[in-house]
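User: Structure tokens for this complex, please. No commentary.
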Amino acid sequence: MKARTSLGGKFNLNDYVVYIGFAVIFVFFSITLFNRGFFTGGNLMNITQQTTMISVMAIGMTFTLSAGEIDLSIGSVVAISAMNTALLLRHTSVIVAFLGGICTGVVVGFINGLFVTRVRIPSFIVTLGMGAIAGGFARLITNLESVPVDNDTFNFIFGSGDIGPVSVLFIWTLVLLILGQIVLRKTAFGRYVLATGGNKVSAIYSGINTNRIKMAVLVLNGALASLAGILYTGRLHGARYTLGDADLLLVIAAVIIGGTSLFGGKGTVIGAIIGSLIMGMINNGLVLMGLNVSLQMIFRGVIIIASVSLSLREAKER
Amino acid sequence: MGNYILEMDEIRKSYDGVEVLHGVHFDLSAGEVHAIIGQNGAGKSTLMKILNGVTARDGGTIRIDDLEVNYSTPLEARKLGINMIFQEFSLVPSLTISQNVFLTKEPRRGALFLNDRECEARTAEILEEIGAEGLNPREYVKNLSIGSQQMVEIAKALSSESRIVIMDEPTASLSHAEIETFFRVIGRLTGKGISIIYVSHYLREIFKICGRITVLRDGSRIFTKRVADSNMEEAISAMLGRRMVEKRVRVRRQEGSGDPLLEVNNLSVGKLIRNLSFRLHRGEILGIAGLLGSGRSEIVSAIYGVMRKERGDILIEGKRVGIKSSRDAIRNAIAMVPEDRRRQGLIMSFSIRDNLIFPILRRIRKYLLVRDRKGTQIIREYMEKLSIKAAGPWQVVKSLSGGNQQRVVVAKSMMSNAKILFLDDPTFGIDIQSKQEIMNIVSEFADAGNGVVFISSELDEMASHCDRIIILRKGEIVDTLDCTKRADVSEELLARMIQ
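Assistant:
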């Protein structure tokens, strides 16, 4: 598949920076951390697994940012959806629990969308508030208790299983990547999303219902955050209110490093996945280097600011 | 000499090697209202920007009270008593009247603290001076009508010692009643010895309130006369110049028969447009001629569904249609080339292809997927038809010339298989060749049995291409010209009628 961030067909170095960056970091860690087992099949699969949830959310965020909006509630949506799914599993089937979990994010996304399109509050305020509300509910629902999940089918499908040598998480990533890329690139909906973010006024004059598009991306983003929550639950065999609470920054960083514009009109799902893998690799590398959690945090912050600065520099050139 | 408080002499200015002011002279006496008129591009704005210190002049002198002055910023101009009131108001909506009036020159108490009470008291004084004592200095500007905002804008100009106030198209967005009040304020200002430079397209107003009039054309002064010694005909001829009178180019090929293609009854939009009705027939190019602020854009925007209309029936081919959004309009075979191509017409960061794909998405879809190759093929056809000069469909529209960008917008409007096309100033700011080619395509479009509503600030273009022209003044249709029957429709006639 071709890696275009804008819909344009001409070669643009900026569109490929993320791949070069990915390769550079990969080679760097492979050499410097060779003795500590970075470049082993097990570790690489491990990175992919750890990155899956970030990747899933990054796909949703790619759509939202492309449409010129942002969703800061996803961290809490992960937690509340995970809790709901885990609780539902006590009484119902896997499929109902799964659907219940996804519905949680859909509802949150829908409420976000209503406030953005009807009340016209900027999405970063609405979703910040909704994030607090959803996070509060995630704590309230079991009074801070975590909920274990011992349903083997559920755990297998949503995170812990392997098919042959391949983790199900890898399959989830791959399927969603392909779907996301097709929807953004090859469907009318994808074009409308990019047009809405590219120039809302012109999109309206072109006959696009921009409110409906904003609503759709926020609902999609919520649904994918819920899926990430469900995958956390399956992988960890249980849910806790802390799930996803550090993910928001990583997701936004991954999407922007990937080449999606913070200001809308430009987006790439493949780039977002590569961006997620870069974040995953760096996390993994930092751990293998033996940096403690505090240092990892500092390092991550630096990387995020640096990468977003680069993307803004490009935006100014436009 | 010595009679003038301001004299500008031999003012020259070039942009990118092209001289736009060729040694212009302008003078102003105390307490005078002096009008500057001219067509778009005549050099009015540049001359005023030079006087206001926004733009640097390349040559010439400016004398105030017979003393030569040199300054290069609006702040320095203000110190010399020169203030400008802009067409688009420069007020901060979220601040109060008094905060706006004294912005950057707030009265202080000590070095640090603002003296709000004094600020409000002095604002009240100024408002009283100009007869706007009804305004509360503590009111927020965002709650004011346009007319009141204009008053605040004037108060702001008077808050520093003003001797010369430049007003750029000050009445364009005012209602009749507001204009009357505004004229009284101008009377008060001149009574105090303040001089006013009045830049406007509204000649009727100029002949009512100005003392002298200066006509600019193509960067040169044509004449300066006392209003009493001139008249509107003379002013219009001077503005337009003795250019080759363009003959009517278009020959209408399709005579409309049966139901009109588009019928608009009792359209009301905002305060300006009340119960306006008109019809557009098959094969017709219908012009709406009016000055800026006449409501010409509002009419088409409201029918197209991008501006709210209070009332109004729209019938297409005799059938009543409800249009609430541009989607509805497009569904009813209406397309529009909006006024502002960069903001409304195009997505500047997208390629030609990605701008043009929206109107045909439905046609090139198979199941849920967009068939790119088919789309590109159709887009190439239209690029050829409109002779869009580009490296290919992948070129980003931002990097195209204005003329080519406009061709993309026109292509976009035609690709939606519309039967009714609205063109809002489609040739503004583009090269002559693009203008002609776009007008030819529009003509062909009408000849195929479709209808076009055409708005333009270039009146010669309307005279030479429209089959019928509606004359619009402050939201009202005052006349309709049938250009196929009358031989005397010219730029000059239109310029006189829209006044």
